[in-house]
Amino acid sequence: MKVFASYIPKTDGNLAVWAGTYKEKLGSLGESLGLTQTEIEEQQDAAQSIIDSINKSDLKKAEMKEATTAKELVKQGNLQLIRAMVLRMKMRPGYTANAGKELGVISSGQTVDTNGLKPTITAASFRGYVSISFNKQGMFGISLYSRLKGQQEWQSLGTAKGGPFVDYSALTEVDRPETREYMALCYDGLEETGYPSDIVTIVHGG
């Protein structure tokens, strides 16, 4: 027995386009197909509801990405301020271990095996920049590198102590999207250590 594929697209993007076409064409063809005006409007409302739900979902996803990036930027800037102040407090005569314990600014004392260190990174493309979030595995920071897909040499983007790292590098060719690759190494404050992260690939449109 033959089984035919559904005419309804599976991906949201294609489904939204399909629903829009169905709604539009039904307005001109529905009557000739024997549908009442009520039935036509009911079908059009159903198609529009599909479109609206997909658009709302896409908007929420975009807002979540922006909110996550904004959160990380706020964390990065303000945690740097806090760390700097904590360092100053620990150098003052009035500082005690008990005060540090109450403030929660005493290290756990856990050691890190630098031989097996391997940072993890993720990248997201936004208009004008790429945001790279990372896990530095308890180290001081990471060294971040980038290159165009197909190139052999990595270009250093510098070091980062807190994420996300924002890459504002311009497109190699104006208005032509490019595929970029990113890679990172843990940085202990003096030198790189451990293994390179997995390479993350992303298409950036500038």
Descriptive notes:
This protein has 206 residues and is of the alpha+beta class. It is built from 3 helices and 8 strands. The protein has helices at residues 12-29, 37-90, 97-103, and strands spanning 120-126, 129-135, 141-148, 155-160, 165-167, 178-187, 192-193, 200-204. Strands 3, 4, 6, 7 and 8 form a 5-stranded antiparallel sheet that branches. Helix 1 (12-29) packs antiparallel against helix 2. The radius of gyration is 26 Å and the shape is elongated. The mean pLDDT is 87.
Task: Specify the number of helices.
Answer: 3
Q: Give the biggest sheet.
A: 5 strands, antiparallel
Radius of gyration: 26 Å
Q: Which geometry do the CA atoms define?
A: elongated
Number of E-type strands: 8
- Helix-residue proportion: 25-40%
Structural class: alpha+beta
- Low-confidence segments, given as residue ranges, are none
Instruction: Note the run of SSEs as H and E.
Output: HHHEEEEEEEE
Average residue-wise pLDDT: 87
Terminal Cα separation, in Å? 50 Å
In terms of DSSP E residues, the strand content is: 15-25%
